[in-house]
Amino acid sequence: MGALIQMQGISKSYGPVHALEEVDLTVGEREIIGLLGDNGAGKSTLIKILSGAIPTSSGTIAIRGERVSINSTSDAISQGIETIYQDSALVPELSIARNLFLGREPLKGPAFLGWMDQGAMSEVARSLLKEVGIEKDIPPTTPIGSLSGGERQSVAIARAMYFDSELIILDEPTNNLGVAETQGVLRFVRNARDSGHSCIFIAHNIHHVFQVVDRIVVLRHGRVVADDIDPEQTSVEEVERIITGMEG
User: Using CA atoms, how far apart are residues 56 and 137, in angstroms rounded to an integer?
Assistant: First the structure.
């Protein structure tokens, strides 16, 4: 399995505060990584750098061995990196179909008129909703604001998968979800590698991470303290001790 993403020597400082110090992170093709750490460990900072939300103070990012510059979220998206947050960037007033294509709507007729192809968007939306496990017959014209939390997450994941994102970053996607909705999100993550995607999965619930990932990386105080934990060979309790610094 080759390396899809290589982050090397990533540091981020806010004045005298070092949020990240010389962090290396590699994500293989079709690999699901669990990124764990206590609050303040640097997880969100590292992900925001990779997703283009904030700049790095130093370090490099390479995709399939080629160094890239990610200076904005648009840069990240153009490089095949899509980030799904706990409260994903969906517009409640717009329909499911519009949210799936937000900023990337297909057009019909003369380009200068800018007419959106509503039929094409609705057709794709119907197919994607079934693909990500929404069994209810929800019309694609339904406003996002009327969906449950799990259904919104499903739409965000469907968007990432439809636009062929090579790396899907899920930042606390199961927070505030019910049991059934949480299992749906976990199922999406498990199936991601079969669809050709890699994932970075961040969750406070270690048991969720153990259910879906291939490898666990732990950050503590802005540094990587473990990057090769096999969830099949390690217990939740051992990982908790690594997170808190109580191991050994």
Answer: 44
Secondary structure percentages of the chain, helix, strand, coil, to 5: 35, 30, 35
Separation of alpha carbons 93 and 78, rounded Å: 26
- 3-class SS of residue 105: coil
pTM of the full predicted structure? 0.82
Residue 244, token pair as written in the block: 């808190």
Q: How many CA atoms lie within 13 A of 212 on its CB side?
A: 31
Quote the CA–CA distance of 184 and 165 in Å, as a whole number. 20
Distance CA 238, CA 40 (A): 20
CATH architecture of the domain 3-94+165-244 equals 3-Layer(aba) Sandwich (3.40)
The pLDDT averaged over each successive group of 10 residues in the chain (248 residues) is: 91 93 96 94 94 93 95 90 75 88 74 76 83 78 86 78 82 76 80 86 91 95 95 95 83
Which amino acid does the sequence have at 78?
A: S
